[in-house]
Amino acid sequence: MEVKEWDTPFNEGTIFIVDLSWNGKNFSVKYPKGPAYELRGSKRHSDYALIVSIFHLETEAVYDVMFKVVSGFRLLDEGGLLELWTPGKKSPNCALIKGHLWSKESPITFISGYEEEWSHLISTEDECVEVVADEHPEIKFVEKVSKRESAT
Question: Would you say residue 10 lies in a domain?
């Protein structure tokens, strides 16, 4: 297994995955000798197949991580990726990985061959999202979030 740095605006600090959406421009569902349906995708996904929204606590900012084409993705509890963490060593929030267990157990996801394809990994304290894609995503600053005083 290999892990390498993936530099993002929220690589260090505390992050939360606040939204993950997958969609396409259009979908069609057809049944042999049955009905067919044409469905429009979300306008938000006109150029992107997968969008992961991240809140970065230290900058109080929301970012969209936008992938144009995705071979596979998964959102899971961080415990599902224990093989990536060395005890006592703080890992960055974002990394590129290859040759790990998912790439070996689901080689169809890694169409170009898991030895050549890197996954994009975003890790929080509670969950991780891993995305298999040929290209790095676009990362867009969405907004600064104002603090709200808690009611006591």
Answer: yes
